[in-house]
Amino acid sequence: MISRESFAGWYRNRFVWVAVILLAVSAGTVVLVNRASPEAEPADLQGQIMTRMRTTLEQADPGQHNHAGHGVQQAAAEEKKPPVICGVRVYGYEPAEVTALADVRTVYGFHLCGVAEQKRPWDVAVKLAGPVIMDMSTEPPGIQVVEATADVRFVDRLREMFPDRYEELALKEALTESEMADQRRRYDVAAGL
Question: What are phi and psi for residue 93, nearest 5 degrees?
Fold first, then answer.
């Protein structure tokens, strides 16, 4: 038979152990939430470049994307501008041998951005898309898109601007399925859908 003092000690220790377990579980949850947070800095250089490209494009005024013929409905001066939600793909960067984001000077890739006007579905949103070159040596990074002109076809312009090793990618590769799904999810949230 267990004495009253032994039972009381066990009963008290049980609460201590429950508190310790709950503390450990909640700390583990905080660690998992922090690791899954979209604002967390990616560990790999490619991920860091994608994050920097996306952030730069989303913070830039759509006119800075230098797209001709893509008119965003102008909001009244007192209205808040709708957010721009972008998906990006990195084809490559220069210098190619660097291992730190601070050392990257030029990024070659693709962007697809949608202007998230309230209650406007993705299918009818104003979009900005195409191959893009970002000059990472400036703050904020410079954005240069490939566009045809009256004298130069799109393909010829792309070949002028992109290094040979990225030309074919830029002609046929856009966003990955996972990047597109993430962009659409973020767009729907921003548009209040």
Answer: -150, 160
Q: Is the pLDDT of residue 103 over 70?
A: yes
pLDDT at 143: 93
Instruction: Give the CB-side neighbour count of residue 32, counting CA atoms within 13 A.
Output: 6
Question: What rounded mean pLDDT belongs to the chain?
Answer: 77
Q: Yes or no: say if 191 and 116 are a contact pair by the CB < 8 Å rule.
A: yes
Burial zone of 106 (CB within 10 Å; 0-12 exposed, 13-18 middle, 19+ buried): middle
SS (H, E, C) 56-84: HHHHCCHHHHCCCCCCCCCCCCCCCCCCE
For residues 176 and 96, is the Cβ–Cβ distance under 8 A?
no
CA 165, CA 152: separation in Å to the nearest integer?
21
